[in-house]
Amino acid sequence: MRKAPRQQRSRATVDTIVEAAARVLAWRGWADFTTNETASVGGVSVGSIYQYFPNKLALAEEIRKRHLDAVLAAISGSEERDGAMTLEQCAAKLIDGVVAAHNVDQDLHRVLLDEVPLAARSTQDEFEAEYLRRYQRVIALAPGKSDPERDEIAGRVLSGAVEGVVHTAARHGELDSPALRAELIELVCAYLRGRSAS
Amino acid sequence: MRKAPRQQRSRATVDTIVEAAARVLAWRGWADFTTNETASVGGVSVGSIYQYFPNKLALAEEIRKRHLDAVLAAISGSEERDGAMTLEQCAAKLIDGVVAAHNVDQDLHRVLLDEVPLAARSTQDEFEAEYLRRYQRVIALAPGKSDPERDEIAGRVLSGAVEGVVHTAARHGELDSPALRAELIELVCAYLRGRSAS
DNA sequence: GATAAATGTGAGCTGACAATCGCATTTTGG
DNA sequence: CCAAAATGCGATTGTCAGCTCACATTTATC
User: Fold this and answer.
1) Fewest C-beta in 10 Å: which of B81, B146, B156, B170?
2) Contact A163 B163 (CB under 8 A)
3) Most confident segment among A7-16, B81-90, B164-173
4) How does residue B124 score in pLDDT terms, banded at 50, 70 and 90?
5) Tens digit of pLDDT for each residue in A109-136?
6) pLDDT for B80 beyond 70
7) Enclosing H/E stretch for A185
8) Closest residue (CA to C1') to nucleotide D28 in the complex
9) A52 touches strand D (CB under 7 A)
10) How many Å lie between the alpha carbon of A188 and the closest alpha carbon of chain B?
């Protein structure tokens, strides 16, 4: 950020800018995302944007930051532990969380993940780490002895697999198919059961 | 294509252009992919590009077409049927094929899938359909009665999952990790085994 | 109320790049 | 050889979006 907003008014302006930018970005895609349109949609002038953001990418970076926070909040809904939960119930919660995450402004989510280049690794990496942690927790819950090194890989496999399926489904507008949800749960459970056996 | 190359020379020029463009696209990404740099890298003039391609996107479209052909060829290496193959061996072949596909010019592959907008659905859709067919074949091989409708979803789940894991691994430069390969095979087999049981 | 600091404005500057077009060179066909 | 067609060239044009800056307006401070 080029300059920190000090007064109430400017803080509101920054919010307006970011929200307008997010809408434009989701609607147009990164390639056609322009600061001029953002300003016009937000009802502010381009100058105001550059008062607080050094360039277009920094603005997108702020959008990403806010969006990922919202996504984590959506996943956190499925967090409470319960010793008596079956593996199925646990997997279901995890998957519902991931689906919910993708439902937080689907278009924006897709554009942010697929199109916007990431300047600083920091934001995205932090998020991915937190994301992975959720999976590790489910894996730790699965029966059988836990080999830390293998669990680490299992986490990456599971997160990659679930993300892949959900992401593809989102692109085809089939995020809420119950059949798909059931198969995904089956996938996760089958994998975890198989691991405990070997 | 604006004009079909009729002579030997022009056919070679078109190849040069497409190859240079692919290199530039992979190196710079879609956002910074310029026809001017392509011309300079290929040792031809911009004019020659527009002699055969109506615009930049059409050029990218041709790159995609050629790349997807190469990818399919890479997967096809793991195609021969063998009735005596175990489920594990079959899954292993499938996964090795997908990994091989991602190894065909990794950078270009990522840019084409993640960044370049698809003008005409045709090319990509054809490819995805063919891709799915490979998975369906493996699923058909799994034991148990086959419910066509459920198999269809299973194909999408499997392809999405495997793609997701491999894609993530590729981004982190861990495409050739044997441990990851083993876990992926386990994932596919566990899922298919579980389906036959229920 | 006066002064300074913070904030808001938008016309316009700048650079970059897609795409063109008139002309030069090469190949083909007779 | 010689037209005519095909191919190749690259300076130039038009457009457009990121970003600046000189000035206007609002808010804070005393």
Assistant:
1) B81
2) no
3) A7-16
4) confident
5) 999 988 898 877 778 889 999 989 988 8
6) no
7) helix A178-197
8) A7
9) no
10) 8
A154 contacts on B by Cβ (under 8 Å): 183
Q: Are A98 and A166 in contact (CB under 8 A)?
A: yes
User: What's the burial of A198, exposed, middle or buried (CB within 10 Å: 0-12/13-18/19+)?
Assistant: exposed
CA A15 distance to own-chain centroid: 20
Which chain A residues are within 8 Å of B169, Cβ to Cβ?
156, 160
Enter the pTM of the model.
0.88
- Given this model, what pLDDT does residue B117 score? 85
Q: Which two tokens stand for residue B165?
A: 């894991």
**Average pLDDT of B165-188?**
95
Q: Is the CB of A46 under 7 A from strand C?
A: yes
DSSP chain B: --S---SHHHHHHHHHHHHHHHHHHHHH-GGG--HHHHHHHHTS-HHHHHHH-SSHHHHHHHHHHHHHHHHHHHHHTT----TT--HHHHHHHHHHHHHHHHHSSHHHHHHHHHTSPPSSHHHHHHHHHHHHHHHHHHHHHSSS---HHHHHHHHHHHHHHHHHHHHHHHHTT-TT-HHHHHHHHHHHHHHHHHHHH-
